[in-house]
Amino acid sequence: MPPPVSPAVRRRFARRKTRDTAPELAVRKLLHANGLRYRVDAVVLNRPRRRADVVFPRVRLAVFIDGCFWHGCPLHATWPKNNGPWWRDKLELNVARDHDTDERLTQAAWQVLRFWEHESPITVSEEIERCLRELRGSM
Predict the structure, then answer these.
(1) Is residue 110 part of a domain?
(2) Which distant-in-sequence residues (6+ apart) come within 8 Å of 40 by Cβ?
(3) DSSP element (H, E) containing 122
């Protein structure tokens, strides 16, 4: 990993959250208010760095709320100028890992839902609840 450009950049990246981000909390609050219970930041697939933001283990539903920068949102992703090649490789690896995780979960009979951090928490929670109703209906 190349060194940060400045102490301010180092501090900013050190403070970034890997869980309990504002979009995750907003969605979880709505799900909880509707009586749903779930696991948070749960390991899936027993593989390194494969954690779902919200998991409903009984129905095998994994929900990911991806950050636009870190996961390559087609609307909002940007490429850093400093240490550009290193960042491009890192961010492309994140996207490839996301695709691999989706494929492996699907092969293991899990339902996978992915949302972007900029999507409406209400819309996201409604889609999760719709999927849960379908999955519970097929049990």
Answers:
(1) yes
(2) 19, 20, 28, 53, 54, 55
(3) helix 121-137
Q: Kind and range of the H or E element at 95?
A: helix 84-107
Range of the domain at 53: 18-137
pLDDT in tens, 43-84: 998 887 899 999 999 999 999 999 999 899 999 988 888 888
Q: Output helix, strand, coil percentages for the chain, rounded to the nearest 5.
A: 45, 15, 35
Domain-located, residue 103: yes
Does this model's pTM top 0.85? yes
Closest listed residue to residue 88, CA positions, set 101, 69, 74: 69
- Tally Cβ neighbours within 10 Å of residue 93: 10
Which CATH number do you get for residue 34? 3.40.960.10
Residue 92 covered by a domain: yes
